From TrEMBL:
Gene3D superfamilies in the cross-refs: Glycogen Phosphorylase B
InterPro entries named among the record's database cross-references: Glyco_trans_1, Glyco_trans_4-like_N
Pfam families to which the protein is assigned, alphabetical: Glyco_transf_4, Glycos_transf_1
Superkingdom as given in the UniProt entry: Bacteria
Glycosyl transferase family domain boundaries: 157-317
Protein name according to UniProt: Glycosyl transferase family 1 domain-containing protein
Transmembrane region(s): none
Glycosyltransferase subfamily 4-like N-terminal domain: residues covered: 18-149
Gene Ontology terms, MF aspect: glycosyltransferase activity
């Protein structure tokens, strides 16, 4: 009789444990590097949105011990990494997200990424450009995203007696950072030729910042004021700008451009990377194939208030329809759902 009771209790306990485990949310670990902006910002926002709007529980980490642990054992049901992880000894569904061209980075990236790509259950990139650049076939394209509701429409100024130009960029790689020097050159020429006061603000930080800052000293004029704001929340800078300027030697899908568009700023950028997947030239921004055309486009935006207003409004609408988290988040949830069936 006692044995029967014990078996009954054990059976009930197993049923309760099964039901409890069944009801527990699936655990996801997102692994990324803790940099100022870039992949850390992407991972932080993705984790927050998943936790708020899905049945999954996400843990974000950049801790080396956690990362090593996830190579071998983890309580997570799924590992989503912006790091090139090795194959796991304990099989877990593995999503790899690649944000840039690792072939242009250090030897570690060149060595580890191909192995990670082969071991991943799903590989994602933000753009068709990067897919083609890396010659990837088995890949899902999920664009970067912004929360449009976090960005107020920039107050429109029709008359620009002292235009405020803004760039938001990280200074982690020289091929990107040197674009700020090119913008300063263009603004220096325009301000001198037009005899017009301008204010150029640069938000961002990184190892190449000091080098860029020293180079820009050569292009300051009596008419051009240059401010380096360092790493700061860019929202207040978008709100005070008239024009967003962006030039890069190599790029993919900069979130800062999408944020500027979400704020309703007209964007002047060079035609590189996946920028044509964000901006439709002449419709919601201006893209330039060379420095002379870039100068021409900046002058157009400074002198044509109707064009500035039209492009800014169209840019905000574009981001709302194609790159808002409400559009992009379901794509991530769908990937997790497929792998956690």
């Amino acid at each position: 009789m006692a044995s029967l009771s014990q078996n009954l209790v054990l059976t009930i306990a197993v049923i309760l444990l099964y039901n409890t485990t069944k009801a527990m949310p699936k655990q996801v670990t997102i692994i990324t590097r803790h940099t100022k902006g870039g992949s850390w910002k992407w991972g932080k926002e993705l984790a927050q949105k998943i936790n708020e709007n899905s049945p999954y529980k996400v843990h974000l980490t950049d801790n080396l011990a956690d990362i090593l642990k996830n190579h071998f054992s983890t309580h997570a049901d799924l590992v989503h990494s912006a790091y090139p992880l090795w194959p796991r000894l304990y099989k877990k569904p593995f999503v790899l997200t690649i944000h840039g061209n690792f072939r242009k980075e250090g030897w570690r990236q060149k060595f580890f990424y191909p192995k990670a790509i082969r071991s991943a259950d799903t590989v994602t990139v933000p753009s068709n450009f990067l897919k083609n650049e890396l010659n990837l076939e088995r890949v899902r394209i999920i664009p970067n995203a912004v929360d449009v509701n976090e960005f107020n429409q920039v107050p429109f100024r029709q008359n620009l007696d002292n235009p405020k130009i803004l760039t938001v960029m990280n200074f982690n790689f020289w091929h990107k950072a040197k674009g700020v020097i090119e913008i300063a050159k263009v603004l220096s020429r325009i301000s001198h030729e037009k005899r017009q006061n301008m204010e150029y603000t640069i938000v961002g930080d990184g190892p190449e910042r000091l080098k860029v800052q020293n180079e820009i000293e050569h292009f300051k004029t009596d008419f051009l004021k240059v401010n380096f704001a360092g790493f700061d929340d860019p929202k207040k800078y978008y709100a005070n700008a008239d024009l967003f300027a962006y030039v890069s030697g190599f790029d993919n899908m900069p979130i800062s451009i999408m944020e500027a568009m979400a704020a309703g700023l007209p964007v002047a950028a060079n035609q590189i990377g996946a920028l044509s997947e964000i901006i439709t030239n002449g419709v919601d921004g201006l893209l330039s194939p060379d420095p002379e055309n870039y100068k021409y486009n900046v002058i157009r935006l400074l002198e044509d208030s109707d064009l500035r207003q039209k492009l800014g409004q169209a840019a905000r609408q574009k981001v709302k329809e194609k790159f808002d988290w409400s559009v992009i988040l379901p794509q991530w949830i769908n990937i997790y759902s497929e792998l956690l069936k």
